Amino acid sequence: MVQVRKTTLLKKLINDPEILVMPGAYDVLSARLIEAAGFKAVQCSGFGFAASLLGLPDIGILSSTQMLEITRSICHAVDIPVMADGDNGFGNAVNTYYTVLEFEAAGAAGINLEDQISPKRCGHITGKQCISAEEMVLKIKAAREAARDPDFVINARTDAYMVYGEEEAIRRGNMYAKAGADLIFVEAVTSVEGIKRVIKGIDAPVSINLLQGGRTPLVTIQELQEWGAARVSIPVTSIMAAAWGVKQALEYIKEKGTIKDLPGVIGFEEFESLVKLDKIRDLESRYLTEDEIALRYQGRDGLEKAKKELH
User: Pfam families from the xrefs (predicted)?
Assistant: First the structure.
């Protein structure tokens, strides 16, 4: 049986009639949870990376190397396609060329590239500015040339909607598609009618993103499907949900003085499954020496018992 490349699968999911829903991962564990929940692809979230790794907002502080290493770990941990967050290419068109080379080699099936100046920032906060459309076109062409796999997805994001207005966002979207982008991500569309117009006005698959507290109305995924969106990213809900869960747990401990009956916490066995302890046990049973098995498990029978306990 021939295995479909993840790049090819991601491109197909984008072009299929059914809208592609891509929640954002902020680390490997969240990517595993996204896969376990049945989603077909993962979006790496620079917002989430910055918050989880540095405790900082998404304002361009995280380096390309830091972004790359987290992305590489995510790509190796899940079996579904991963869309990398390449920010603005971390520089000019030449930097963008090498950014694409590195993220593709890390295992990403595609990459977000945005038309903001450096340092970039989250698309839903004030103070952002865009480079010229012409410069972004060159970045997209450089990215397209850099990708070794022709199906590697270039997701060109424009932040022009908030900076210059709707017409310019649509104009840029069409320019970026002609330059070689496979998907056009219009960031921070501020009205329902605006969402409909950018989807209709751009002659390419269009992506919209949804986040709590953002500029874009929280319409349903079904509505976006009906309006013709190819993809919806939900980039920050996972990290916001995680922060809320940790906050609730810590407040419970502070108030109750115990973890007994703590609500909303994943079970230990389920967590072991999530981090694939069963695979480790299997590898140990096949590759550890008998002496090491005796030391760790009091013999092979003990190892087999440990494997059964996982199920």
Answer: PEP_mutase
**Which of 163, 169, 154 shows the shortest CA–CA distance to 202?**
169
Long-range contacts (CB closer than 8 Å, 24 or more residues apart) made by 67-74 = 68/102, 68/103, 68/106, 70/27, 70/28, 70/44, 71/44, 71/103, 71/106, 71/107, 71/108, 72/106, 72/107, 73/27, 73/28, 74/25, 74/27, 74/28, 74/31, 74/42, 74/44
C-beta atoms surrounding 288 within 10 Å:
16
pLDDT digits (tens, 9 = 90+) for 39-86: 999 999 999 999 999 999 999 999 999 999 999 999 999 999 999 999
Spell out the domains of the chain, with CATH numbers in brackets: 6-239 (3.20.20.60), 257-309 (no CATH)
Q: What pLDDT, in 10s, does the model give residues 255-270? A: 999 999 999 899 999 9
Nearest partner of 177 among 187, 185, 165, 166, judged by Cα: 185
- The number of beta carbons lying within 10 Å of the beta carbon of residue 186 is 30
Least confident stretch, 36-45, 184-193, 260-269, 293-302:
293-302
Token digits of residue 10: 């991601």
